[in-house]
Design brief:
One of its GO terms (molecular function) is kinase activity. It is an enzyme of class 2 (transferase). It is found in: Cell membrane. This protein is of the alpha+beta class and 407 residues long. The protein folds into three domains: 5-142, Beta-Lactamase; 188-238; 254-403, 2-Layer Sandwich (Heat Shock Protein 90). The protein is 55% helix and 18% strand. It has nine helices and twelve strands. The strands form three sheets. Strands 2-1-5-4-3 form a five-stranded antiparallel beta sheet. A hairpin with a 5-residue loop joins β1 and β2 (84-88). α1 packs across α2 (58-68) and α7 runs antiparallel to α9. It starts with a helix and ends with a strand.
């Protein structure tokens, strides 16, 4: 199943929003938990230090420190035999001293004890055998942490929902704008196409009517009429084919896009053009191994249209130069002729559907008048740029730039 660009963009945006929201929220939740644990550990260290600083009255000093800080802490005395005496009780569900190795670690720093009611433990060695154990529950900290994580999940859900809704309306508005623009282009296209088809149809209708009413009596007049009708029919056929190609180029998809050697393609067409035009001086300036991502059919049509325009609109001995070279990250294709060129204002004119720079040229030569429009549409379809310039040979230079294929 093909996924549209808007869907891919929406999925990526929502994922990005999710990652950012979870990242910031998670950092905040863990930082808060760490700060709360640090506060608990600092209070345990303070009580332990008071007991250490008063070895003769360790238990009393510890109790005084707990009262001084108003701590909710449990204080017990553990003997060598494992007997434990509860000195001070707290809200902690204390189930007895943990393993001896944990107690040894707790003499240096507070350690976390995982149980039904988790707590932080700090131990003070009273002599070589007995320990004073100080414990504070961390159950409230864990509950806060879980609440923060649940809140983060809810916030993330609503942020994603808002992002999804905003993206939906954004792309719907963008699609409507594109649809309106496409409709406007289609209306202009259909209007221009109907205008272009009306002329040959009028000619054909007129001659057919004259022939049917036998107004053309002589064989010479009838032959001229049939020839004229055939010419106009051919012109309509060319116009319809070009209109269909322009319509195809306007669609979102592209046919047979692949990596291809544009140097080889242009050389082959250039050689054919030279063979079919022996009276012309044709110069090929083509660098080797220039690869682009394109449709061979589309690019061939571009080259053929350029050569067809030269054969239709220049003298049989007009020189031609075909250039294909690397220009930065692009391939530059330039086809120049020594013909009469275009009117001065045509070089700055926007190339669009059915735009003729010299309206008489196409009718005289049987063309549809869409050659330049097709060439421009082909290059645009292939993510390139197209322009018309004055040729160094004195005529027209057709210039196209296509991005080089990435390795």
């Amino acid at each position: 199943m093909k996924i549209s660009n808007s869907t891919r963009t929406s999925i990526f945006t929502v994922l990005l929003v999710t990652v950012v929201t979870l990242g910031i929220g998670s950092y905040s939740a863990f930082h808060t938990r760490s700060a709360e644990l640090s506060e608990v550990n600092a209070s345990l260290d303070f009580v332990a230090q008071e007991a250490i600083d008063n070895p003769e009255q360790s238990i009393g000093a510890a109790l005084f420190a707990i009262e001084q800080l108003t701590l909710n802490a449990t204080l017990t005395l553990l003997t060598e035999e494992g007997q434990e005496t509860l000195v001070r009780e707290s809200s902690l569900s204390y189930l007895g001293a943990p393993a001896k190795d944990l107690i040894e670690k707790a003499t240096a720093r507070p350690v976390s004890i995982k149980s039904g009611d988790p707590y932080q433990l700090r131990a003070v060695r009273l002599d070589e055998k007995d320990f004073l154990l100080i414990a504070r529950s961390t159950n409230a900290i864990d509950e806060h942490f879980e609440v923060n994580l649940r809140a983060l999940g809810v916030v993330t859900f609503f942020v994603d929902l808002i992002a999804g809704v905003l993206l939906f309306f954004f792309f719907r508005r963008a699609n409507r704008r594109d649809e309106y623009a496409s409709l406007a282009r289609m209306q202009e296209f259909l209007g221009d196409a109907s205008h272009e088809l009306r002329t040959p149809l009028t000619v054909v209708k007129g001659y057919v009517e004259m022939l049917s009413k036998k107004q053309l009596v002589t064989a010479e007049d009838q032959d001229r009429a049939f020839t004229r009708v055939g010419t106009e029919i051919n012109r309509m056929e060319n116009l319809i084919q070009d209109l269909l190609l322009l319509a195809e180029l306007g669609e979102s998809g592209s046919r047979d896009i692949e990596k291809m050697d544009v140097s080889e393609l242009l050389s082959a067409h250039g050689t054919d053009f030279t063979t079919l035009n022996p009276g012309r001086k044709v110069v090929l300036k083509i660098e080797n191994d220039l690869v682009v991502v394109a449709s061979r059919d589309y690019l061939s049509r571009f080259i053929q249209n350029a050569f067809t325009n030269i054969m239709r609109h220049t003298s049989a001995d007009a020189a031609v130069t075909i250039t294909c070279s690397k220009s930065g990250k692009n391939v530059l294709i330039m086809i120049e002729d020594a013909g009469q060129g275009l009117p001065e204002g045509a070089y700055a004119e926007n190339i669009r559907s059915l735009n003729r720079f010299d309206k008489s040229r196409s009718r005289e030569n049987g063309g549809s008048g869409l050659g330049m429009s097709i060439m421009s549409a082909v290059i645009e379809k292939l993510n390139g740029t197209f322009s018309l310039r004055k040729s160094a040979l004195g005529g027209l230079a057709v210039v196209a730039s296509l991005p080089l294929a990435k390795d």
